[in-house]
């Protein structure tokens, strides 16, 4: 997949406007330029990574809680 192909928008995507500082905007533009991508594509990838990491952390926390409370959950299920 070419760098620009990763940044292609699907008709079913939603737009999101975020406010960045001048420094953040410049850093995003520099990174996008260095990667031969659009700033939107770089930001979209960052959001997707963030969501994956957060989802994994929530799953891990849920598993820890389930294991910690397994005896109580078993008793409640009886």
Structural features:
single chain; 78 residues; mainly alpha; 4 helices; 0% strand; elongated; Ribbon-helix-helix protein, CopG family
Task: Describe the protein.
The chain is mainly α and 78 residues long. It has one domain. The protein is built from four helices and no strands. Helix 2 crosses helix 3. The longest helix has 30 residues. The termini are far apart. The mean pLDDT is 89. This is Ribbon-helix-helix protein, CopG family.
- Summarize model confidence as the mean pLDDT: 89
Q: What is the assembly state of the chains in this entry?
A: single chain
**Number of H/I helices:** 4
The amount of helix comes to over 70%
Calculate the terminal CA-CA distance, rounded to whole Å.
53 Å
What letter string, H or E per element, gives the SSE order? HHHH
Largest sheet: none
**SS content category:** mainly alpha
Task: Work out the number of β strands.
Answer: 0
Form type: elongated
How many domains make up the coordinates?
Answer: 1
**Rg, Cα atoms, Å:** 20 Å
Strand content: under 5%
Low-confidence stretches: none
Protein name: Ribbon-helix-helix protein, CopG family
Can I get a quick summary?
The protein is mostly helical.
Summarize the SSE layout with pairings.
Layout: H1 3-6, H2 22-35, H3 39-68, H4 70-77
């Amino acid at each position: 997949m070419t760098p620009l192909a990763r940044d292609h928008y699907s008709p079913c995507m939603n737009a999101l406007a975020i406010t960045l500082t001048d420094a953040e905007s410049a850093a995003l533009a520099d990174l996008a330029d260095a990667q031969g991508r659009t700033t939107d594509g770089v930001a979209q990838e960052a959001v997707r990574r963030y969501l994956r990491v957060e989802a994994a952390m929530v799953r891990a926390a849920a598993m820890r809680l389930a294991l910690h409370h397994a005896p109580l959950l078993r008793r409640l299920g009886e």
